[in-house]
Design brief:
The chain is of the alpha/beta class. It is built from 8 helices and 7 strands. Helix 5 packs parallel to helix 8 (194-210).
Length: 214
Amino acid sequence: MRIAAVIPALNEAETIASVIGDVRVFAHPIVVADGCSDGTEEIARNAGATVLVHEVNRGYDAALATGLRGAVAEGFDGAVTFDADGELSIDGLSKAVDHMTQGEAALVIGVRPEPARFSERLFVAYARRRFGIQDILCGLKGYRAADITRFDRYLDVPSIQTALAIAIRRSGASLAQVPLSIRPRTGRPRFGGILRANSRILMALVRTMLREPG
């Protein structure tokens, strides 16, 4: 089973080569250079990744969509999303790939020690109660290619990568959840400053609740 690791990146020149080096042991890295201006694209390509390029910054959701669709187009059997900043532990990726290649789960989601923001705590509590997902906002998620194709429309929903996972889970897919350790992040947060990040996460929660069956 061929697994791709989809890595959205916005100006992650400082960490991207190291992340790719770790990832390549377990999956083929596909980096989405999302309007980078610091050489991330060239560094990633030289480190051995497939690089997909957004000429202008389109945001985290769009980068994930491009990467997941790219993995399917390249014939991979599944894809695991992973962060470019070096924050997520590589052992979590290893475990996620194992679950997928051994056929133990159709959906794999990482579980961080604790959410970072109050808005995350609200969303996490809701997803835990409704869908049994412990950390819906974790950047590590694993999908089968068939499910990415089946639920492709959810890739265009502004959801911080939650809509696709929830749609797959609602379909009755088996779920594996992988504990992760977290390393200190360098550089700016992927969701922006505190107010902007909390706003985005709360809006994603509202959209999820509105999509619930009546």
